[in-house]
Write a structure and sequence with these properties.
Layout (H helix, E strand, L loop, with lengths): L2 E3 H8 L3 H9 L9 E3 L5 E4 H20 L14
Antiparallel strand pairs: 1-3, 2-3
């Protein structure tokens, strides 16, 4: 695992501090998996886990976009 500081994650992956904070607060990144606290109490991030999560989300979106989609329903009659 490659645990890095928030600043290093910003430098390497292009995230902003605000993006990281939002992902943690919203629960997109799980404590103990994508992030944790180091012994000094600073939040550190697991780049390997974040990359794996991003890959799985991209795969899910790809699968969703190739699935069969229904045509929108037509409205029959007037709604006057």
């Amino acid at each position: 695992m490659s645990w890095v500081t928030k600043q290093r994650c910003c430098d390497v992956r292009g995230y902003t501090q605000g993006m990281i904070k939002a992902r943690i607060q919203r629960g997109h990144w799980r404590q103990g998996v994508e992030w944790t606290y180091d012994p000094n109490g600073l939040q550190i991030l697991n780049l390997d886990a974040i990359d794996a999560l991003n890959d799985s989300c991209a795969d899910a979106q790809r699968n969703e976009s190739t699935s069969v989609k229904r045509a929108p329903r037509k409205v029959v009659g007037s709604l006057v």
